[in-house]
Amino acid sequence: MIFVSLLTLFTGFVFDTPSEILKGLGRIITSSSILLTDYMMVGSIGSAFVNSGLLMLIAIFIAIRNHTSVSGPLVAAVFTIGGFAFFGKNLYNIWPIMGGVMLYAKYQNEPFGKFILPAFFGTALGPLVSQISFGFSLPPVLGIPLGILAGISAGFILPPLANHFIRFHQGYNLYNIGFTSGIVGLLFMSLLRGVSLENPATLIILKGNTEGLSVYLAVLFLSMIIYGFVNCSDFAKGLSHLFSHPGRLVSDFVASDGFPVTLINMGLLGFLSTAYVLLTGGELNGPIFGGIFTVVGFGAFGKHVKNVLPVMAGVYLANLVFHWEVSSITSLLAALFATTLAPIAGAYGIIPGILAGFLHMAVVMNVGYLHGGMNLYNNGFAGGFVAAILVPVLDSLKINSHTWEEER
């Protein structure tokens, strides 16, 4: 984990000079960060990499300080933070959210380590902090305190809501905090609209740097696979066992299959995700990096090659049916993040998995307005609704599935 963080951090200095990186980090920290704000474009490619590496190191340090053992959920959380550090999370806006979760832990008289996952995943609401602080043209003496207060408030209510909403989709949406953050973002956006504050439509995307970025991804994923092969006595048997899991929450592949096999799965998912983007004519940029990193991270926590392929196929099919551009940034992000519904394919089969991806593509196009781009995990928000609709129907039709007890 530390190796990945340092690789990402030092890669930034391959693209830019220290001076350019510092200036870029300043622009990143003071940006509104609402969807979609590509830090590779706002700051620079190098500063985006440094921002990602630093945020992953911070997360790892916090985990160590709170005696949190390495697990599938923790790996997913760190990679998700690193991925979204390319488009929405930065050295300023993560702290109020985590501070709010820490306050909740103190209020409950529980150790912060018990709530470290909601704290890490909850940084999805970083744009709430940044937009209020810098995006509404408020005086800094007013905007910054209000942004911090909003972040702390959002972080405080995240843990109890996340615990409740997992019942809504029955664990078939891996981005449970994404759905929860969508609800919280909806709440705050409604309040802001009540005082005539609205978020503008934002699409700031880097173009034309695919080759250099591809090299970094290839080195990263190849290192995972090599490490897994070297440290796994029977990788074929191990992968076969891992692929047998449906992936429904909570599926900790590190605990059930071991870290080496899990790393091989993560590397394979990285190559698969990158191949989908490039083969459909897409380009690599900050948001795409966020999507790829998230898929890879959840390769330790519910996703594997077998259960993500049907969902991605469903998204691709939806683009063809609705005549949407397959290589557009919206379609590519939907294909990557729709894999939050991988447990449906794992539990119910290929056809339901394709259907889940198809429906997800349609739903995700219509839910972003509700939270105004304040929730970075927009696909997790959409995935919660799709799972809540689809799973009861599949159950009523008596579609064969793995039960909760079998998954455990």
Give the gist of this structure.
The chain has 21 helices and no strands. It has helices spanning 2-15, 18-29, 39-42, 45-65, 72-84, 94-107, 116-121, 126-135, 140-169, 176-194, 210-231, 235-243, 253-257, 259-279, 286-297, 305-321, 329-337, 342-348, 350-371, 378-396, 404-407. Helix 4 packs antiparallel against helix 5.
Question: How would you describe what is shown here?
Answer:
- This protein has 408 residues and is mainly alpha-helical.
- It folds into two domains: 2-194, no CATH class; 210-407, no CATH class.
- Helix content is 71%, strand content 0%.
- The protein is globular.
- The model is unreliable at 403-408 (pLDDT under 50).
Write the layout of secondary structure elements.
Elements lengths: L1 H14 L2 H12 L9 H4 L2 H21 L6 H13 L9 H14 L8 H6 L4 H10 L4 H30 L6 H19 L15 H22 L3 H9 L9 H5 L1 H21 L6 H12 L7 H17 L7 H9 L4 H7 L1 H22 L6 H19 L7 H4 L1
